[in-house]
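Notes to self after the Tuesday call (sharing in case useful).
The group wants a holo model before anyone commits to mutagenesis around the pocket. I volunteered. Ligand is iron/sulfur cluster. Logging inputs and output together so the record is complete.
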Amino acid sequence: MNNNIPGYIRLLQTGELHTRAEEVAESLLKNCTLCPRECGVDRTKDELGFCGSDYLPIVASYCVHHGEEPVLSGTKGSGTIFFGNCNLKCVFCQNHQISQPAQSLKKNEVSFDRLADIMLELQAKGCHNINFVSPTHFSAQIIKAVAIAASKGLKIPLVYNTNAYDSLQALRLLDGIIDIYLPDIKYSDDNEAKEYSNAKGYARNSRQAITEMKRQVGNLIVDDSIAVRGLIIRHLVLPNDIAGSEESLRFISDEIGKETFISVMSQYFPANRAGDFPLLSRPIRQREYEKVLGLLDELGLENGWVQEYSSKDYYCPDFEKEMPFAD
Ligand code: SF4
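Result:
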């Protein structure tokens, strides 16, 4: 297999891409099980589930992003598409204006043709990839738009930048279509996930999802400093060890593989409603962060990136400011 040819091009040639877009995606949306909440609503009839999203995708913004991991942003940027709404409700979400909007984002709904055109526009700007941010609740719609875009000449890798609260049914729909999975691993304890993200069973579901992602794409493959296929796992360190960092890193080391590329992030700050939760109401401390970095060494996890520690250097939710990554 030539890893430099995105998988969806092969599926386009066999006709499988359109079959999935027209049949499988539609049937999943008729009884929505795109995420473990399994709301069962008929989104083709504009019924709303927990994520508050109906049939058409909501694009909050899109841009050429230079602040992702170096293998994604490269020199020309990652073609990032930020979807509105979310299937999690993280009290500390740094993008809460678009993930948990105070007012409906229906005005940002786009047709499948328009979403395909956005991908082609980002490709024309020279982006190394198309990067779907918070895609879970629109994963089926993304397939429909990719089928259109691929027919019109899309040919760069697709990145699925997810909170990992994805159902296995949805991930199987994406098998062979997504080239690079970029999941978070947010919690290792279901009680913390329920309290701070209203996500029942997050630990088990996210681990199942990441295991399936690894099965589909394998370890990260980089060609000429740019990712072409594989898995990168992100982990945001939270104050008071709410993220359960050690358990998550042990899971990666033991179950996913020591060679896995991991992106450890220090950028937490008490955004959204975090100030109402005492254990989340401060940035992380340097010693908390250094403890997690020490675990990477201890567990033999050598591949990836870590953000520099800075109590001031926050990620700016206007998507313009670059995240400072250090090798
Ligand atoms: S994506 Fe998840 S939260 Fe949204 S309707 Fe489907 S099952 Fe429910």
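Two things stood out.
The chain has a mean pLDDT of 93.
The pocket of iron/sulfur cluster is lined by residues 32-35, 37-39, 41, 49-51, 53, 87, 137 (CB under 6 Å).
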